[in-house]
Each structure stands twice: as structure tokens, then as C-alpha cells.
Amino acid sequence: MESTLKELMDQASSRLMDIKGLHEERIKILQQLSSLQNMLKNVKCISSSQAYQLVRDQIEKSKSEVFECQALFEKLQVEKDNLLWRERELNVKSDIADVFRRSSAVVDSRISDLGIEIQKQIEERKMIEAKLEEASREPG
């Protein structure tokens, strides 16, 4: 019977130690819970403060401005691309106009040369006609 009593006492002592350990663990968990609740109160206090609200509103306003600037930037980028295409198109047209001017200058020069050649031929013909007429008047 003494051995049973000793065994029961040992069991009770072991269970008491388990309960004591669990109680200490419960106290630690409750302390952590209290700490987390205090932190949550601090976060709620900060997030409901006027300064926090002002900063949050300013951030939202800044985000909106950033989106507007991005949209404007994209619009300007498209406009820039369009201007580049128009510039290239105008350069091509200018090059074509230069080619036409140069060809026109060549044609004008050729016309002038041909005009001079025609004038020479006319003068030569007149000279030949004059010689023929003179030769036909000579006796013999």
C-alpha cells in the first residue's frame, strides 16, 4: 500500500509539475496577447490620427498625379512619334523636290544648249543659202 501511495504521490507530483508548466506557458501566451493588443491599439491610434490621414490623402493625391503624368507622357510620346514620321515624310518630299529641281536645271541647260545649236544651224543654213544664191548669180 505504501508503494501504491508513493506511486500515486509521484503521479500527482508529476501532474502538478505539468499543470505548473502549462500555467506558466498560459501566462506567457497571455502576456504575448496583451502585447499584441497594445500594439494593435497603437497601430489603430496612429492610423486614425490626423497626421496619418493627411499623409495617406497626400499619397493618394500623388498617385493620382503620377497616373495623370504617365497618361500625358504616353500622349506626348505618341505625338513625338507622329512628328518624327511627319519629319521623315517632309524630308522625303524635300529630297524629291531637290531631284525635280536638279532635273529641271539639267533640262533647262539642255534646252539652252539645243537652242544655241539650233541658232548655229540656222545661221549656217542662211550662210549656205547666201552662198548658193551668190553662186547662182555668178555667170558661168
TrEMBL record:
InterPro entries for this protein: E3_ubiquit_lig_Bre1
Cellular location(s): Nucleus
Enzyme Commission number(s): 2.3.2.27
Pathway: Protein modification; protein ubiquitination
Keyword Transmembrane included in the entry's annotation: no
Reaction(s) catalysed by this chain's protein: S-ubiquitinyl-[E2 ubiquitin-conjugating enzyme]-L-cysteine + [acceptor protein]-L-lysine = [E2 ubiquitin-conjugating enzyme]-L-cysteine + N(6)-ubiquitinyl-[acceptor protein]-L-lysine
Alphabetized PANTHER family for the sequence: E3 UBIQUITIN-PROTEIN LIGASE BRE1, RING FINGER PROTEIN-RELATED
Name this protein carries in UniProt: E3 ubiquitin protein ligase
